[in-house]
Structures are given as structure tokens and as C-alpha cells.
Amino acid sequence: MNVISYKSSAVFLTENREVLENREAENSLLLGLAQLAVDQEKTGQEPLALGSWRVENEAGESVLLLFLSTKNLIIACGTSTPSKGALESAVAQLLNSDLPVSGMVGPRPLTDELAALWETRTSHQKTIAMNQRIYELRKVKRLPGMGRLIQAEPSMLPMAADWTFAFGSVTEGITRDEAEKLVQQGYDRKQLYFWELEGRIVSMAKAARPTTHSMTIGLVYTPPEHRNNGYASSCVAALSQQVLNQGFHYCVLYTDLSNPTSNHIYQDMGYVPVCDSVHYRFS
Fold first, then answer.
1. Which residue from 14, 27, 37, 89 has the least number of CB within 10 angstroms?
2. How far apart, in whole angstroms, are the C-alpha atoms of residue 266 and residue 263?
3. Are 248 and 214 in contact (CB under 8 A)?
4. Can you give the residue ranges of the N-acetyltransferase domain (predicted)?
């Protein structure tokens, strides 16, 4: 096995984009974060990427791609299924790098296998933060309900930070400062949207991580007092249609498999399952 280590996210993305885009929806998280890291490198911002690697088999084929962000190790399969030896090589490289791996996110069963091996080699206990499913949508089949989609304005950012903190404290364990930073970034990049009904802001969603053919819909949140009214569904449907109208081929969306209701709603909207994914945390 051969492991290639990259010091530049730009070089990593250039050399591996074609392989990643063979499964673009499945790899949308890695593609989107790598592109964000490239943009940060260009402007001298605080780096999102701590490291990135490609594992090759004896034939020189890419079998495993790894991107370590400040939050998680993002995992992608290459042109063929990685062997146990490839996973061993990846773990050895990560250990040699001496970089912190606090979590892993990627498709199943590949990520399950790598997480189990990491737990064995490091004695860091793994727990599942979320069982996920990745969906893609190419046509919105369910139209939004009453209300309208609006882009975030400066006066809405404190509320958006409150909602993002409430959302992220459950899904990602983010701090209030991190929530405010995410909201500001979303506003600056014109990615943050709300559903407005009769002058009230009742739900939120974000269209982010653009790839060659898609954008990912995320940060879908409705405060408790406005839930069970279909506002999040309307917000996601309208935002998904807007992404398609901008010329993207499809939208990507991650769901929590422990919530069958939302999974059913998104499928009725036109989202089609791509694969299952899992988010592990290590302690």
C-alpha cells in the first residue's frame, strides 16, 4: 500500500476531484469542505483542513481518500473497495501524523470498519453521534405551503445564531461562538435563508458546500413553538427549487435516520436515497 500525504488542499482536490465526483452526492461533504479549505488557503484564513491523504493499492489505484477537518475525519471510497491492508495503512498514517481525530463521517460500511480499527489501535472509544442517510433531489415534487423564502438580513443574525446553537448543540456539539461564526459565514456567502409567514420568521435552512453539479441543503431548523406546521418542509422545498433554478443539477441533503417522519417528508418532496452514512465521535 502507498499513502500520499498532501500539504495543500488545492493539490489534494485537483488530483482527486475526478474520483470523488464519480460519486458526487455521496462525497459532497468531502468535496465541499475541501473546496472551502482551498478558498481559505487563498485568502490566508484560519485553516479548516488539518491534513488530507490518498491510499493506493499495489496497482496504483486510489482506494481510500481522507480529509481531516478541525471537527472530523471525512472518509470517501476510491475507485475500488479498500482492503483491510488499506485501512491499516490509513490508520498508521493518521497515527504518525499526530493530528487529533475526534470524529469520523462517511459512508457505510467503510466508515464503520475504519472507526472500529481506529478504536482498536488507539483505545479511543467510539460512539455513534448520528446514523445518517444521504439523499439527492433533481425535481421538487412537493410545492411549498403558505409563506415565502427570504434571504437572511443583518437584523436576523442574532436569532439565526440562537437557532444554529440549538441545532448544533444536539448534532455537532458546537459552542455559541461557533454558531455565531457559522451564521456570519452563511450570511456573507449568501447561503442562509428563512421561511416567512405573515411577517414572522418561522423556519431556517442553508444552501452550502457547492460542488460541480450540486449544493447541499442543511441547517434545517424550526423552533419548538413553530413545529408541526410544515414550515421546514416549505423552506426546504423552496430553497431546493431555487438551487435548481440557479443551474445546479441536483441538491444533496443529509438526514437523521432516527427521525422517520422527516425522512418520509423529504422523500415525498422528491429526495431519493443515495447511501447511508454514519458520524462517529471518539472519547
1. 14
2. 5
3. yes
4. 147-283
